[in-house]
Amino acid sequence: MPGRAASALPWAVRATWAVLPFAAGPVLAAALDPRAETLRATASAGLWLGWAVVVVAVLVPHPLGLTTLRLLAPASLAATAVAVATAGSDVGGVPSALGLGATTVASALAVLPETGTWLVNGGAYGGERRHLLRPPLALLAGPIPVAGGLLLVALASGPLLLAAGRTVTGVLALAAGLPLALVLGRALHALTQRWAVLVPAGLVIKDHLAVVDPVLLRRVDIEVLRPAPPRTDALDLTAGAPGLALEARLLEAVPLARVVLGTRRSEPGRSAALRFTPTRPGTVLAEARARRIRVG
Questions:
Q1: Please, are residues 121 and 130 in contact by the beta-carbon 8 Å criterion?
Q2: Helix (H, G, I), strand (E, B), or coil: what is residue 277?
Q3: Could you tell me if residue 163 is inside a domain?
Q4: Of 45, 117, 230, 232, which one is least surrounded by beta carbons within 10 A?
């Protein structure tokens, strides 16, 4: 059953996005002022463009597609909620509920750990299997959603201001918004490139928030991979992420350069026990066992 559910997930995501224009479109269209034709056309074009970008992202799995999906899925829900609040009475209760329901499902599917695993492995090489690491709690609590919102505002404000006839303000918004969107987009995308990677040789920890360079834990050197006990002495590479951490204990210490969060410094050293936090720890343990890594 887990395998069937995993194989059905991509099609559920794709099907949900395929029906969004029919489910949420009427509510969004009703919220646009019909008297401002240029502004209405620009907003409609932006909505269609965002929808098309996500369709491509879920048809061709790639880590960049995960960034796109997790940025635009919550945005679709927020836009629909605002549209219902402003124009819900003009379209009726059923279309409003349908639009909110469809965008809620799309957002829920986007944040599933299984969705992340599916999309980041679209760019995997050969026998490797990538497993996303959880974001730090300090970023989840505010900076990530704020950055996503600012990115969308930076992209949309310039074209919308120009469509509204505010040429000078629109040009300034474009000049400032595009570089800001690029910086924020790169920062958000970097969070989807933090992985625990099972490879034929063992396990690789790739996390720019915790270590300067990826750390290879050779299968022959791994004494045990297990859920981290409460009072473990393993080196903390979780970057403050919530959830169940895994601990890899080694027969020999490996060299690494640990990132000091909040600074530009790193601390070189060695460790024979490491702790990290994947989004799906049970799946990591199961796949590690299948690759002949000792699991405790």
A1: yes
A2: coil
A3: no
A4: 230
- The contacts of residue 69 (CB under 8 Å, 6+ apart) are 13, 54, 57, 58, 110, 115, 119
In a domain, 179, yes or no: no
B/e letters for 194-225, b = 16+ CB within 10 Å, e = fewer, are: bbbbbbeebbbbbbebbbeeebbbebebbeeb
Residues in the chain where the model's pLDDT stays below 50? 1
Q: How many domains does the chain have?
A: 2
Distance CA 265, CA 181 (A): 27
Do the domain assignments include residue 142? no
Note whether 119 and 219 are same-domain residues: no
Q: Rounded to an integer, what distance in angstroms lies between the CA atom of residue 193 and that of residue 67? A: 10
Claim to verify: residue 205 and residue 105 sit in the same structural domain = no
Residue span of the structural domain in which 257 resides: 195-290
For residues 117 and 199, membership in a common domain is answered with no
Distance CA 44, CA 50 (A): 10
Task: Say which DSSP state 134 is in.
Answer: P
pLDDT of residue 51: 95
What pTM value is reported for the model?
0.89
Same domain for 8 and 116: yes
Predicted pLDDT of residue 208: 93
Last residue of a domain, one of 90, 106, 123: 123
Q: Dump pLDDT digits (tens) for 103-157.
A: 999 999 999 999 999 999 998 888 899 999 999 999 988 899 999 999 999 999 9
CA distances from 179 to 160, 205, 276 (A): 17, 31, 33
Secondary structure E strands in the chain: 129-132, 195-199, 202-206, 215-218, 222-227, 235-236, 246-259, 266-276
CB 237 within 8 A of CB 256: no
> How far is CA 72 from each of CA 15, 20, 123, 160, 196, rounded to the nearest angstrom?
16, 12, 21, 18, 26
Query: Which amino acid is present at 75?
Result: A
pLDDT at 296: 87
Provide the pLDDT for residue 89.
63
Same domain, 96 and 214: no
